[in-house]
Amino acid sequence: MMEQKKSTDPVKSPIIQEIIMSNRIGAICAELAKRLNVEPTMALEMFYESQTCADLHDRRTRLHLYSDLYVADEFMREIGVK
After folding, report:
1. pLDDT band at 4 (very low <50, low <70, confident <90, very high)
2. Contact status, residue 58 vs residue 52, Cβ threshold 8 Å
């Protein structure tokens, strides 16, 4: 049988992926803080409690493939703010 090779792409490392996701969430929450006129920590708390955040972490939804601004728009729709 052919032996499967481990990926040598460092970007695919779970640690790197976690760093990338954390950075994205920071950027999303900075945008939400501006749009909602709240402190960034409040925006972060609101986002982490949202379905949008759950969907962002669930690869099956494919939301992680969309831009940070699109994810911010999805959150705004979720909470009913235009």
Report:
1. low
2. no
Q: What pLDDT score was predicted for residue 67? A: 98
The CA-CA-CA angle for residues 41, 31, 54, to 5°, reads 70
Burial class (CB in 10 A: 0-12, 13-18, 19+), 61: middle
Q: What is the DSSP string of the chain?
A: -PPPPPP--GGGSHHHHHHHHHHHHHHHHHHHHHHHT--HHHHHHHHHTSHHHHHHH-GGG-GGGS-HHHHHHHHHHHHT--
The pLDDT tens digits for 19-63 are: 999 999 999 999 999 999 999 999 999 999 999 999 999 999 999
36/56 Cα distance (integer angstroms):
20
